[in-house]
Specification:
With 283 residues, the protein is mostly beta strands. It has helices at 92-97, 107-117, 152-156, 212-222, 245-248, and strands at 17-22, 25-30, 40-43, 55-57, 74-80, 85-90, 121-126, 129-134, 142-147, 161-164, 169-174, 187-193, 199-201, 204-206, 230-232, 238-243, 256-264, 271-274, 278-282.
Length: 283
């Protein structure tokens, strides 16, 4: 998990890389780690859409204001597991409709054109990364992208080919490679809250609000009812957590759940690392 990093924070505690897995597809959450940088993921609770959708982020984080030069007729195809197939065409009219020029398009303009051109995926921009996700969740949900004339997927570094969703919420937690202390074997605790806020522990700010969800999560993790929420980092300073999707099905559409991750010393006496906050939106 030690690859090129994009640091967006400073201070004694660097931001945590939290990587969500949509089935076998890595979907980074949070604000640090590699070229794929996201800070939220959706979890569908509706019957027939239950679970995490396939999410395809660009493999590069583009500088703010980066300009793409597309040409009339550039296109790519989208297919999903339901048998739907559509073509997204990048032409002058499509970009004019979102108030942009085809040869001076930015990430937000590209996302708007994609959203206007297909109902099979949703495009969004976060931390200078463009991502597309399916409109259904679960392991049977797939999104397959195929490059066409002008190779817009290649220009955007959006991976072609199929990707799958997941019934569960799977997270892979990593300490940044440039963290000054090797934390392999140290204890971690994944915390979750239903509210934005912060509280102080051992003089350090944990970026979550104290509420019934946080309290319940702590009790459930401590009692083993949230397997993997407490554990030890492996030799690569990583940890994998699979959260039972059925538990998340209890959250009401429109709600958000916030996560953060702390690392404690082997004897649990000292706080050594605090992550940034990342979000799961329930739709």
């Amino acid at each position: 998990m030690r690859t090129k990093q994009l640091s967006l924070t400073a201070g004694a505690f660097a931001a945590l890389a939290a990587v969500g897995l949509a089935h076998h597809l890595h979907v980074p959450l949070s604000t640090l780690f590699g070229p794929q940088v996201l800070d939220s993921v959706v979890f569908y609770t509706e019957s027939g859409k239950f679970g995490v959708p396939s999410i395809r982020p660009t493999t590069e984080a583009f500088d703010h204001g980066h300009v793409f030069q597309f040409h009339d007729g550039d296109s790519f195809a989208v297919a999903d597991g339901s048998g739907g197939r559509e073509t997204v065409v990048f032409d002058a009219a499509a970009f004019a409709a979102v108030g942009a020029d085809i040869d001076r398009a930015r990430l937000e303009d590209v996302a708007a054109v994609i959203n206007a051109g297909t109902d099979l995926i949703e495009a969004y921009v976060t931390n200078e990364v463009l991502a597309v996700r399916g409109v259904a969740g679960g392991s049977a949900s797939t999104v397959d992208l195929s490059d066409g004339p002008g190779s817009p997927l290649a220009k955007l570094t959006l991976p072609a080919g199929p990707g799958s969703g997941s019934d569960d919420l799977e997270l892979e937690l990593s300490i940044p490679a440039d963290h000054p202390v090797d934390l392999a074997g140290h204890n971690y605790w994944l915390l979750l809250s239903g509210t934005v806020g912060a509280f102080t522990f051992q003089g350090h700010s944990i970026p979550l609000g104290i509420d019934p969800t946080l309290n319940l999560g702590v009790l459930m993790a401590a009692s083993g009812k949230l397997p993997g929420f407490i554990g030890q980092l492996d030799a690569g300073n990583d940890a994998a957590v699979v959260a039972d999707g059925a538990w998340f099905g209890a959250f009401t559409p429109g709600m958000e759940l916030y996560f953060s991750y702390v690392v404690m010393s082997p004897d649990w006496s000292a706080l050594e690392f605090v992550s940034n906050r990342f979000t799961v939106d329930f739709l």
